[in-house]
Amino acid sequence: NIHLTLVGSGHPDYEAHLKSLVEENRLTSFVHFKGRVPREEMPELLPQFDVLIFPSTYEEPLARMTQEAMASDLVVVGTTTGGTKEILIEGQTGLTFPPEDADMLAEQIKRLIDHPRLRTQLIDNARTKVINEFDISRMITEIEWHLSQAAEIIPAAVNS
């Protein structure tokens, strides 16, 4: 009784390929293509799901989507490419798998099904981490502090 909803859009040829695979494997009643969703609609959309699969292969600085999912009480199962490893910690704030490793992704999903208490623990830990470490006010304060430190160093280097 697992359903997959793909949110977002990509290259039209790739989307057509995915839809073709879904049809060929007779999964149309289990896989749904939502398409692009405006950012302002995401807070209403996320609570409709239990898990966010984040299969990124890119070295993104830090995907805000993972933080938003964790704040919305979704378990994140994803790759730890780029900055995602700062927030997605295996067995603590989510479950991880190597990029392009579909077998490991399937194992992690099965792990959530087989261990319902794990899901609750991951949700609690992730929410706490997002609130404590990725609060916008805290992040602004830290950025301003780092900029002020850099501003003190740079004039000294320029004047010498």
List keywords for this structure.
160 residues, mainly alpha, single chain, two-stranded parallel sheet, 3-stranded parallel β-sheet
What is the structure about, briefly put?
The protein has 160 residues and is mainly alpha-helical. It contains 6 helices and 5 strands. Strands 3-4-5 form a 3-stranded parallel beta sheet, sandwiched between helices. It has a two-stranded parallel sheet with strand order 1-2.
Describe this structure in words.
With 160 residues, the protein is mainly alpha-helical. Helices cover 50% and strands 12% of the residues.
Poorly predicted regions are none
Q: State which percent range the strand residues make up.
A: 5-15%
Write down the overall mean pLDDT.
91
Which sequence of SSEs, written as H and E, runs from N to C?
EHEHEHEEHHH
List how many beta strands DSSP finds. 5
How would the blueprint of this fold be written?
Blueprint: E1 4-7, H1 12-24, E2 31-35, H2 42-45, E3 51-54, H3 64-71, E4 75-78, E5 95-96, H4 102-114, H5 116-133, H6 136-159
Parallel strand pairs: 1-2, 3-4, 4-5
Helix pairs in contact: 4-5
